Amino acid sequence: MRPAKFAALPAILLAALPLAVQADVDGPPVRLILVGDSTLAPRNGYGDALCARFTAAVQCINLAKNGRSSGSYRAEGSWAAVTALLADRQAAVFTYVLVEFGHNDQPGKPGRSTDLQGEFPVNLAGYVSDIRAAGALPLLATPLSRRSFKGGLLIDDLAPWAASTRAVAAERQVPLIELHQASTAAVQAMGSVEADTLAVEPPPASSPPSAMTASAAAASGDRASTETTSPARSAFDHTHVGAKGAALFARMVEGLLRERLPALRPYLKSESE
What we know:
By secondary structure, the protein is of the alpha/beta class. The chain has one domain: 3-Layer(aba) Sandwich (Rossmann fold), CATH 3.40.50. It has 10 helices and 7 strands. It is globular. It starts with 10 loop residues before the first helix and ends in a 13-residue tail after the last helix.
């Protein structure tokens, strides 16, 4: 009898599994590849914390990179590394690829900005096509909210890119991870002072919490775009996350994955862990 936890998996996938695997482990070995910008990347994003929420049956590979947009990630060759992994179909029975862009696609980022109507959705659709052609399952995530406030209200400057991601997901019938909506609601609810505790480090003593200074506005893209040689430069901004923020948003995405992809539930650690 087919285990109940495998009921949501495609029949063709189950048929390909050795009987010993189906009977003796929690689920077939799967792979999750993360693709995106610094909000997902190691060290200042939530991606590694998300990987930690999966059991040992999952190979979670975080290939998100600081400062990348939906256009520059492919143009610089980073996407080629993903397609090389996808070509190795022996590495896992099934592969998911989660794609999240938006922050660096916004205007004012030379070499990275993309046109919201003519380029950004085309780029996302291109990733979807490549992933499917490789026999893997694409997942699109709307961009993580920034945490800048004005007059007590969160500045939602990524809404158009979130809307474009939703449209591509609907048109191409791709599972959508609605991170922008969830993170925006959570950050607004906690307020600016608490939101600042999610950053890589506390705000400088001379800067009011969540003040929209020129330096903070510049840092609201990716840290790679504003690095200087000054040793006194603070790592605080309203985009990147430290351990607390990474844990919060990783758990948020975990919950969204549980809702949208029941087949992944057996591969996620218990919610009490």
